[in-house]
Amino acid sequence: MSSNGTRDTDSRIVDHNPERERGILTAHDRAFLLAGEDEGVREDMSDTAVRQKRHKIRNRFRNALVDIQYLLELEDEDLSRLFPSDEWDVVDRRIIHGAVLASVYHMIRAEADREEIFNTLEAVVANDVIREYAEKHGVYAPEGEVGVEIGVPPVEECPTLEEVRDVLEAGEEIPESAHMALDYGGIHPNPEHL
Fold this sequence. Notes:
Blueprint: H1 27-34, H2 47-71, H3 76-80, H4 90-109, H5 114-137, H6 161-169, H7 176-184
């Protein structure tokens, strides 16, 4: 169970085998993060051990994020082989890409406002376009317009999660984003739908 909400994050993990080869996390780290309080590997851990484990995982993750800048020095050919289409299906690749973007967004969102994040994202995308046009086409591409727009009505105009769940339970179709909201709110009547 995620401490970020009430949803089970395991439903969005491509490789459910916590024993797989080490990446950023050890097999024990994965089992620790997937376990609820006082369950699985956490069952015999003291509060101090849990705090130390979380501290080690945070440090390892922070260092991995910093290391990404080094990994970007790989040739494009190497980067394109990270998730080749003959080994990964479209859904799994989409989950991986979403997880990467969501984790970075979540980490920086804690210390920055959305506008700052979107300005950084726009600059990164614009720089990538300029680089690609220069390297591949030998031309200068003046900065195009890159934008992320969020148009959300005021909270008081939004239906409550209970109202959305009632619509779903009445047999009506709801958009995928509404399913996600119910899941994030911990009240989806059919969480395996996701």
